[in-house]
Design goal:
Layout lengths: L3 E7 L3 H10 L5 E6 L6 H7 L3 E4 L5 H9 L6 E4 L4 E3 L1 H13 L4 E10 L2 E15 L3 E4 L5 E4 L3 E10 L5 H21 L6 H18 L6 H26 L4
Parallel strand pairs: 1-2, 1-4, 2-3, 6-10
Antiparallel strand pairs: 4-7, 5-10, 6-7, 8-9
Helix pairs in contact: 1-2, 5-7, 6-7
Length: about 240
C-alpha cells in the first residue's frame, strides 16, 4: 500500500494552519517546515502530531528540499497553510497514488477573494509527487523537477490566499522585495521600459486573455493588484540599485 506525506511550509500561519491540518488528517505523515514563526504556528503543528522542522528561510526551493529529507512516505503532497483538501479531492489523491499511473499530479487552485472562487484566476500546479523522483530548483520562482509523467486531478484545492485587501497588497510588496533582491543578485538588469510595459501587460493578460472579467469585481481587483505587484518589483529594483533600501 502506497503511503503519503504532506509537507506544509509555514511562517506565522497560526490563524489558518489548523484547518489545513484537519483537511489532511488522512495522510500517513505531516511535516511542517517552519521559517522561525513568532506566533503559535509551531505549537499548533505539534499539538496535531506533526513532525516540525524549523529552518531560517533563504528561498522556497531550499526550504522544501530540506523538508523532503525528513519525509518517509512513498508520495509527497505539498500544501500551504492557507489551502484545504476537500473530501472528494482526498479520495482522488488516494486513488491516484494507488494506481501508480504517473510520477506526479497537477492540482487546480482557483483563488478565493471577496467571498467567491475566481475560476478564471486559477493555477494548475504540480503538488503530488513520488518522493524519490522530485526536487526543487530556482530561488525566486521555485520549480518542482520530476522524473516521469505528470497527470492532472479533477477536484479543486480550496485556496484562501487573499485574506483581505490590505493583506493582499502587503503580500505583493513583501514578495516584490524578495524577487527584486534575487533578480539583482543574478546580475540581471532592468530599465524604465520594464517598469512601464510589464505591469500593463500583466493586467491585460489576466483580465482579458485569461478572462478575469468573467469573475466580476473580484476579477478586476485581482488583475489590478497583480499588475501593481509587477510594478512594485521593478520599482524596488530601482531603489536597490540606487542604494535607497
Amino acid at each position: 500500500m502506497q503511503t503519503l506525506t504532506v509537507i506544509i511550509p509555514t511562517y506565522n500561519e497560526a490563524q489558518y494552519l489548523e484547518d489545513a491540518l484537519y483537511s489532511v488528517k488522512f495522510a500517513d505523515e505531516i511535516i511542517v517546515v517552519d521559517s522561525m514563526s513568532t506566533d503559535s504556528t509551531v505549537k499548533i503543528a505539534t499539538d496535531h502530531g506533526c513532525k516540525v522542522v524549523s529552518r531560517k528561510f533563504d528561498n522556497f526551493s531550499n526550504q522544501k528540499n530540506h523538508a523532503l529529507q525528513y519525509a518517509t512516505s512513498d508520495w509527497i503532497l505539498f500544501l500551504d497553510g492557507d489551502e484545504r483538501i476537500t473530501y472528494t479531492l482526498q479520495k482522488e489523491i488516494l486513488n491516484a497514488i494507488s494506481s501508480n499511473k504517473h510520477t506526479g499530479y497537477k492540482l487546480n487552485f482557483p483563488h478565493f477573494y471577496m467571498n467567491r472562487f475566481l475560476y478564471h484566476h486559477d493555477n494548475d500546479v504540480t503538488r503530488l509527487v513520488v518522493r524519490d523522483k522530485c526536487h526543487f530548483e530556482g530561488n525566486v520562482h521555485e520549480k518542482l523537477i520530476i522524473e516521469g509523467s505528470i497527470g492532472t486531478l479533477e477536484n479543486i484545492v480550496l485556496h484562501y490566499t487573499y485574506k483581505g485587501l490590505a493583506h493582499y497588497i502587503g503580500k505583493k510588496d513583501a514578495y516584490a522585495w524578495f524577487q527584486a533582491k534575487q533578480i539583482l543578485s543574478k546580475g540581471k538588469g532592468m530599465n524604465y521600459f520594464h517598469l512601464a510595459f510589464k505591469p500593463a501587460y500583466r493586467f491585460f493578460h489576466e483580465y482579458f486573455i485569461r478572462r478575469g472579467f468573467l469573475d466580476g469585481i473580484p476579477g478586476l481587483a485581482v488583475a489590478v493588484i497583480n499588475s501593481y505587484g509587477v510594478f512594485s518589483r521593478y520599482a524596488k529594483m530601482i531603489l536597490l540599485k540606487k542604494g535607497l533600501k
